[in-house]
Amino acid sequence: MSEWPLVTFTLLVQSSVGIVILTALYFCWVEKEIGNQRASQAMKPILLVAAILGCLGLLASTTHMGYPWNAFHALRHFSSSWLSREIVFAAVYLGALCLYTLIVFIKGKMNRSILALIGVLGLVDVYCMASLYFNTSMMTWMHANTYFMFFGAVFAAGSALTLRLVAGRVKNLISSELANKMVVSTLAIVFIAIAVRMAIQPFYLEWLSNTVITTNAITFPHSPADAYAETFLLRISAWSWGIIGILLLGFSIWKKRPAPFTSGLPLITLACGIIFLGEVLNRFAYFMVK
């Protein structure tokens, strides 16, 4: 499928950014309870996962370029090209993340402020990424929906992956109260990320219908409302999986409250996997334009 490189590139990089941001948040809580050294030891592999996902995403981006080495020529147009800005900030974000991950593995200590700063660099990269697709002649991308989709994936996919990774690393180190706090916070973040994007869809579809009538510009697809309708079932499936994941995550809080990261870990794993699957399908729906 021709959409695979774009889906892999955007979703993996955005998931990486989400993992860094949520790791910074959860590290603050874990550090207060068990100390910096133990918290760093437990959570540093999560940084490695974030770095690997980001690098794999960047690697996937080269597969849909005719001549990947031409990306270097795009750097000359930083002041006017979103592609150039995206390349620069992706390099800055991944370079900072990989370097800091190496430092953490060598020194064995993490700093929440540095993590947060790297996360901000990642958000800037995601903004440039969204602007790159927004400023194209592809009608279905030329709407604020693009920004909502990309930033929503940062917090939905990123939160789900981070919760599962953190749960596996700290399940025997922290209290059940803190574990429940993490699950609840993840549930809230994922719910907001999915709900906001679902809420904007009617306005997005109305804009597609109105724009094709009022504009004389040459854009693709020529019938954007029809192109949107063709992926209706895929979009419904994506939202459905997301909702199911949210319900399972909520059920894990209710059912496994005394031990969410031990006896409740299989349920959390299933919920997080389903949420991520929903993000994959949603991204396919976004890029699948015939």
TrEMBL record:
Keyword annotations from UniProtKB, A to Z: Membrane, Oxidoreductase, Transmembrane, Transmembrane helix
InterPro entries cross-referenced by the UniProt entry: DmsC
GO cellular component: dimethyl sulfoxide reductase complex; plasma membrane
Lineage: Bacteria, Pseudomonadati, Pseudomonadota, Gammaproteobacteria, Enterobacterales
Enzyme Commission number(s) of this protein: 1.8.99.-
A Pfam family recorded for this sequence: DmsC
Name of the protein described by the UniProt record: Anaerobic dimethyl sulfoxide reductase subunit C
GO molecular function, one term: dimethyl sulfoxide reductase activity
Transmembrane segments: 6-27, 47-67, 87-106, 113-134, 146-166, 178-200, 232-253, 265-289
GO biological process, any: anaerobic electron transport chain
Organism: Providencia heimbachae ATCC 35613
